[in-house]
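Hi again,

Forgot to attach this to my earlier email, sorry! This is the prediction with glutathione bound. I've pasted everything inline since the attachment limit keeps bouncing my files.
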Amino acid sequence: MKLYLNEVSSAASRVRIALALKGLSVETQQIGILGLEAESRKSDYRRINPLGLVPALETDDGLLITQSLAIIEYLDELRPDPALLPTAPVERALARSIALSIASEIHALLTPRVALHLTDAFNADSQSTTAWNRHWVGVGLDAVERLLHQNRRSVFAINSIPTVADIFLYPQAIGAKRLGFDLGRWPNISDVFSRLETLPAFAENAPAPRK
Ligand SMILES: N[C@@H](CCC(=O)N[C@@H](CS)C(=O)NCC(=O)O)C(=O)O
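Structure tokens for the complex follow:
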């Protein structure tokens, strides 16, 4: 298997964390994602992921899987131990709900291609783009904080072991800190984050800071 990624990518960090939790290693290829001329925007990479996003996973049969949640669930089915989704149907749904709330309602609004379009189409400068990012992270994590509230008897977001909810939360919380947020604004997120950052699978696979 081969994973296309970039070290600053929050979405690729999710897959790296999942691989580390499962003790799996795969071939990797870095794809540039920053700037107008980034490799991710070229036709060669569009053949791998038509959306021009990382991560993408190429299976041993040469099939291409995009979307970090789909990739992580595929890995979870290939190597079920440790399980990254809880067993109980309602907990599985809650874990996916938190993962998707982060991926679809927060992270999707913060990607380089969105920032480039804000600049290109609306003349947004870097201050406006940062204000945009802070807005979506603030309202998004306010909501995730409330989603977490109903599970606060657990050690991690949903369960006593990390699930996809934690795998999506960790890089997003790091992104929030890099945007200047104090995680103390979200006591549940802060509590889960402080446990996750002690786990090497998480700490060693955080998204690298952008230079
Ligand atoms: N929903 C996708 C998001 C993938 C994504 O947005 N990746 C970002 C990096 S974190 C990317 O490749 N961005 C390139 C761009 O915006 O041009 C997933 O979960 O895999």
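The mean pLDDT is 97. The longest strand covers residues 2-5.

That should be everything now.

G.
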